[in-house]
From TrEMBL:
Entry keyword set: FAD, Flavoprotein, Isomerase
Required co-factors: FAD
Lineage of source species: Bacteria, Bacillati, Cyanobacteriota, Cyanophyceae, Gomontiellales
Domain called UDP-galactopyranose mutase C-terminal: residue spans: 147-343
Protein known as: UDP-galactopyranose mutase
Species of provenance: Chamaesiphon polymorphus CCALA 037
Any Gene Ontology CC annotation: cytosol
Length: 364
């Protein structure tokens, strides 16, 4: 008999398992269909001994001291400020677009104010931004949109930017300074010994039991529990009764090279060439010293593990039906990217789980 059954051993599930075990002193069973903990943030040492991210680059960044303080119970940190380059016509340019990008691309020598004036000249003015194409062209104009955003977005989503909510591309900043960092958050850190080691500590309390290679359907009938915390796909929980929520998936092709580094930064985007969107080299991210390196090409796909909810109005309407059905269940709590059909960064998942614990679970 368990007080709580948690479905999914990613950030949301592990955070709630720890809080329930340590703060409430109650018994938790956490299950996952995969053969490992950590969800998509899982990392491991490959055959060459290189620490790699199994499901693509996971870069931790946050403005929340609360989240950093919480996770610091389980890991030490190393400072890492992420940089991304885009390969365009055989040359590399900083992304997000900034002063260095524009000056190199157009052979200019602008300062920050002149770049702001440049953006104002080339951008198109819209009364209302209705999609991602307008979100980008309304900031940087058509030429930069065509060079850096249009084809990359189609590869990622199999939808053109004008078919996607403005929120998709609006997340990408445009700068007038020389800041090459991809993120602007106050805290940009990586778990010193990797994510998996951190998750192991999160689940180390004796009140927490773990079952891998196990689905909710398998245990539903024979394991007794008082309250269910579900971090998986909400449409699957309801047996797709209103229809299937669409996701984009990813496929990774790993290669090990007999060289210390393959590329100058962790992520190089390929907006216009090839079928893959980017090449990731995790040694830049982890700080590992090794004579070899492992890279992975990232191919977006329609089928496979669900990664990205597809942000379109019709999908939000479908999710709302599931959300309404979930609201009627007193003994089930839904939390996480898949359960809430929302693109969360890792820190946002932790913050959401801590809030759910404080506002709901601790009151049970």
């Amino acid at each position: 008999m368990f007080d709580f059954l948690i479905v999914g051993a990613g950030f949301a599930g592990c955070t709630l398992a720890d809080c329930i075990a340590t703060k409430l002193g109650r018994k938790v069973l956490i299950i996952d269909t995969r053969n490992h903990i950590g969800g998509n943030a899982y990392d491991y040492y490959d055959n060459a001994g290189v620490l790699v991210h199994r499901y693509g680059a996971h870069i931790f960044h946050t403005n929340s001291k609360k989240v950093i303080d919480y996770l610091s119970r389980f890991t030490q940190w190393r400072v890492y400020q992420h940089e991304v380059l885009a390969k365009l016509d055989g040359d590399l340019y900083p992304i997000p677009i900034n002063l260095n990008t524009i000056n190199k691309l157009y052979g200019l020598n602008l300062n920050s104010q002149e770049l702001a004036d440049f953006y104002d000249r080339v951008r198109e003015k819209y009364d209302r931004i209705e999609n991602s194409e307008q979100a980008v062209i309304g900031k940087v104009g058509k030429d930069l949109y065509n060079k850096f955003f249009k084809n990359y977005t189609y590869k990622q989503w199999e939808l053109w930017p004008h078919e996607l909510d403005a929120s998709v591309c609006a997340r990408i900043p445009v700068r007038t300074n020389k800041d090459n960092r991809y993120f602007g958050d106050k805290y940009q850190l990586m778990p010193l010994h990797g994510y998996t080691k951190m998750f192991e500590k999160m689940l180390s309390h004796p009140n927490i039991k773990l079952m891998l290679n196990t689905s909710f359907e398998e245990v539903q009938g024979w394991i007794k529990f008082d309250h269910l915390i579900y971090t998986g796909q909400i449409d699957r929980f309801f047996d797709y009764q209103f229809g299937k929520l669409p996701y984009r998936s990813l496929r990774f092709e790993f290669e090990t090279h007999d060289t210390e580094y393959f590329q100058p930064v962790a992520v190089v985007n390929y907006p216009n060439d090839y079928d893959f969107t980017r090449i990731v080299e995790s040694k830049h991210i982890t700080g590992q010293k090794h004579s070899k390196t492992t890279i992975y090409h990232e191919y977006p796909e329609a089928e496979g593990d669900p990664y990205y909810p597809i942000p379109r109005p019709e999908n939000r309407e479908l999710f709302q039906k599931y959300k309404n059905a979930a609201a009627n269940l007193q003994t089930v709590t839904f939390v996480g990217r898949l359960a809430q059909y929302q693109y969360y960064n890792m820190d946002q998942v932790v913050a959401a789980a801590l809030t759910v614990f404080e506002d709901r679970i601790s009151q049970l």
